[in-house]
Amino acid sequence: MSSPSAVESFPAHTSAASQIFTTVLSQGPLTRLEVARRAGLSAAAVTKAVRPLIEAGYLVEDVDEDARPALGRPANLVRVDGGRALFIGVKVTGDTIIGVLTDLCCRILVARHIPLPARGPEAVLGTAAELVRELLIEADGLGVRVAGLGMAVSGDVDRAEGVVRYSPFLEWRDVPLAELATMTTGLPVTVDNDVRALTVAEQWFGAGVGLSGFAVVTVGAGIGCGLVVHGRVVAGAHGVAGEIGHVTVDPAGPRCHCGNRGCVEAIASDDAIVRQVRAATGVQVADAVEAAGLAHDGVAGAREIYARAGDAIGRGIATVANLLGPERVIISGEGLAAYDLFADHIRDAFATAAFGSAARCDVQTRPLPFDEWARGAAATAIQSFIRSDANQRGRGGGQQP
């Protein structure tokens, strides 16, 4: 793979400038006065920060004819030029690598899926390099450079160090993925937990835009949770936060791969549901699709398994609501294909276990295909690119507004 040209530095040299750009990126187009109000900064600070961003082509101005004041010229709207830079996002699953090429506004331009021949780091890096090569060719055709690569992996991921500490699905421990991927692709690389990456995308470009606190709960191969508290994605002191999949809801429940009993994930993940449906029905279903089919057909025992899963998920979400009081909880993941089987049980368990006003949390579902998870990885690359701490570029960082 030919190495990309030297990566241009983003012209935002202070945290205030990064904050201003992020505000316009996620909520724009906006007037300068509105940017100042939403960012909590002075109009002078906004003017100072916007000028070099406009000169470098990252922001552009448009006249807002609808906002014309009583006297004088119409106000100017500031917006991000999405075509100014491109980014690649890669989501690694147990059997496939999904890659997307996005613009600076994280709009997907191209998506690719490549089967994964094996789960070891060497096989994953080789397949990812092939996919990145294809997307770089697409970027060359657009005449715009790729400014960064984001990679999303399930499990315990230390974004600040770019290391996958433990990924149970890939069976990885202490893999320096950011360093290896940078050597392989020549791009600055940000590595993050897949659910946390999805949360970044939802915060900046999705259902979490403008919210100070929300959570993303994913249901499927595992039960994941990404958290935003006071406008910041929570990474945890050691890279782990929001692991509601390992909240114990039934101390006498099934053994979890983490070693404990009765975790939400041990009851409600796809594999857990398949095992329980096999035991309850005697039918050797191959996967979650077949398990859900039995439940939809009314096979004795199958629907009860989904009811129990819904109860576990609802209690896990209530734990998040009780501890952090988010404005919204967004439920997503491939497990939503069977959502009708446990939706009522999630709502009932949440209402029962949520304390007081925590029950007012807006719980909503948002089905997102795996391309969106790869988009989340691209969002982390965009985030690393525009942050003011240049020392973190290419390795990622911890919490980020």
UniProtKB/TrEMBL annotation:
One Pfam family named in its UniProt record: ROK
Family in the record: Belongs to the ROK (NagC/XylR) family.
Xref: InterPro entries: ATPase_NBD, ROK, ROK_cs, WH-like_DNA-bd_sf, WH_DNA-bd_sf
Protein name, UniProt field: ROK family transcriptional regulator
